[in-house]
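Please, structure for the following, as tokens.
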Amino acid sequence: MLLTTERSSPSLRDLPPVADHRRLHLVIGGHVDHGKSTIIGRLLAATGSLPLGKLEAVRANCERNSKPFEYAFLLDALKDEQSQGITIDAARVFFRTASRPYILIDAPGHIEFLRNLITGAARAEAALLVIDAREGVRENSRRHGTMMSLLGIRQLVVLVNKMDLVGYDGEAFARIEDEYRAFLAKIGVEPLGFIPVSGREGDNIARPSAAMPWYDGPTVLETLDRFRSEVADADKPFRMPVQDVYKFTAGGDDRRIVAGTVETGRIAVGDEVVFLPSGKRSRVATVEGFNVEPRREARAGEVAGFTLEEQIYVARGEVATVAGQPAPRVATRLKASLFWLGRKPLETGREVVLKLGTARVPARIEAIHRVLDASTLATDERRDRVERHEVAECTLRTVRPIAFDLAAELAGTGRFVIVDDYEIRGGGIVREALEGGGEGQAAWGRGQIDEARRVERNGHTAGLVLVTHGAEAARALEAALFDGGAQTAYLEAAAGRVADAVPVLLDAGLIAVVDASAFAASEIAFVRDTAGHELTVVSGPAGDVGVPEPAAVRAVLQEKGILRS
């Protein structure tokens, strides 16, 4: 028999337990029925992380229904999940060991639910991948390994589960380790180690297994406490994707709070903040938080906001940074590695929506450089389409500049998902920022007049109003706003032509009023995303083609800061 004592988990054995009490984000993946849920249930029970009486209640329920108890039932809260025997959603599980707290993301193994792995694993710092000792390496074993590589997860440990079903045979374990190590090497992943376990019997989960004396590496629980957290997020360059700008008017409160979740870094009163891709600048006047004591700083992981000394218009989707620190890239062309999940192929020239941070930007697949089958690793450099469940290296071109980091430098702002027809169809990471706009892309030059001067002259910021109940109503509204002193422009055309024209009108500081009555919901979303600007959709009751009340529209625009009071 080939013993694995000399080769199993050498990297893990060399790593001492951490002395870091920060929460670690951990993802667990694997092929369907390979035992992920059972292992999670074991971890919850072993760490005392279950609600009081939960374990006993599940055992009693199994007895009442005359079915054997399984630790997986602790996780399968939904009845339809238990009836299908599969986990169908990415569940976040909270537990802690003596060393630190964890968030464990259960990435579904069934092929229909692979898309949840992209979103579920997006913040993971380490991963466990489960392989059935009896079934061996399967299709989703390879796909999940590939996707974890795409997400930049470098700390990977493989659990060879159900060792009890192969008689705790060390040779069976060694064969799987050899095969999967060779696969991971082809995609540039070096695992920290392999652990033979039995979720059902508890071998090597929280205690060493007497049934496998040939393995002398750490247990799964010991392994978790040897994973290293990334460099403290608060010590990285500041990044806060802007979620919204909140304005207050009651009691003379005139604050405009730029709000979002701080991805990395920290920001303090007095810092000069730069918003990208617009390049607008100001200084932080106050740091705000909901229902918290006054403070002067916000740090990574906090939902926070800040006010500015000089009021400037900031749109959702901008990335707040601190002057003097390494800045994100800003480009309209980027090279990316992506995983496609859509049933229809992703073809060259296809228009999709790229969602990165809080930015949603229409994008086009400019080029497909090579396609990789995530299961077989076969590559093809002559393809013009990406089929379902394939990995590809592509060039994406966005309709307007977008701010991002390379995934190798700052993972949180270097990962994206692709939205197509309101559903997540793919995701990936940014590898490189590219120059140029690509053939056929309109490039609008900018003059010397900045936004502040236009606001001062016009008396309002630029804005977009989509009127959904008729051209007559849209024309009347535009006239009413113009008569009230606003600088306006009226558009009535197909959605594609409107999307081309609106950014130019907004750059000119105008309020663009669009007849959107013939637009489908997807076309309204496309125009909104293309504009990347403050948006008000004005609509009336079904069948009502009357003129919207101009005063009401003005009030909404004033509240959003598009029109001054």
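The chain has four domains: 10-224, 233-322, 330-434, 458-559. The longest strand covers residues 359-373.
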